Amino acid sequence: MTRPSYKLDRSQKQAEHDNRFTFQLEMKHGRPECALECNDFSVRRTATVLDYAETTSLVKEMYSRRGYSTDGIVSIPRRANTITLDAHDSEKIMGTLTVRLDTRESGLLADTLYADEINEFRAKGHSVCEVSKLAVDPRFGSKQLMASLFQLGYLYASVVNRVADAFIEVNPRHAGFYKRMLGFQEIGELRICPRVNAPAVLLHVELAYMRQQIAFHSGRGSSTMEKSLYPYFLNCSAEDWIDRALRTKQTATAGRIGNR
User: Beta strands 21-28 and 13-17: pairing type?
Assistant: First the structure.
């Protein structure tokens, strides 16, 4: 099956940078929908039942290769507090990650092992989220693709949903990658994650830190000595566009209420 790329109509905002990326934004049902497009792939929020099935299949395949249990990995339909992103070309899913927003009803998956650590941030009034189900087909595991997934996740978490802190449970063998590439810090000791039956540690990053790194490093690619993923992030006014779109919606809503 040929997969259509994520093309938006003329009313949607676009910005190009170095001919590598196009950032796209539209409002759907009063909420921003974002996408990143480059020459080789598109990254956007997973939308269809087929897309969810394919992202779940990729997660299971990559997890099983690492020896993780996949029994608890199921295809979950789109929900307000769960933002699944996928990178794809016209034929296949190349990578995926999920941002899970905190709610009183369901909390975070990491609460199973690390509720005390996460509650310290909640007690300070911080809104939190977690990154989970990151899987990238090794044939396409470039820094550009990884950066695109994490940047779109950052935009949905920080700008759209005003989250302050992000967490991720990872195998200790992979913790160094997240520390070097994105600035995560380890705050939870080694435990066994029952979902995948494998060791895990809890990592944390402030999204304000990510914002600073994006502002300083983005758009430089391989031309800089910086070894993190941030030089591969898109340098554009995405945050400003989303902020303006949300403010316009809020103003319009207030006007309708005032006219009743």
Answer: antiparallel
75-87 b/e (C-beta count within 10 Å ≥ 16 → b): beeeeeebbbbbb
pLDDT single digits (tens) 220-240: 888 888 889 999 988 766 666
Cα distance between residue 175 and residue 190, in whole Å: 11
Cross-strand partners of 100: 82, 130
Report yes or no on 23 lying in a domain.
no
53-82 pLDDT, tens digit per residue, is 999 999 999 999 988 988 877 766 667 799
The CATH number that applies at residue 187 is 3.40.630.30
pTM comes to 0.84
Residue 175 belongs to some domain of the structure: yes
Task: Supply the range of the domain harboring residue 229.
Answer: 45-258
Residue 36 counted as domain residue: no
- Report d(CA 72, CA 87) in Å as an integer: 23
Q: Which of 180, 184, 145, 146 is nearest to 165 (CA)?
A: 184
Q: How many domains does the chain have?
A: 1
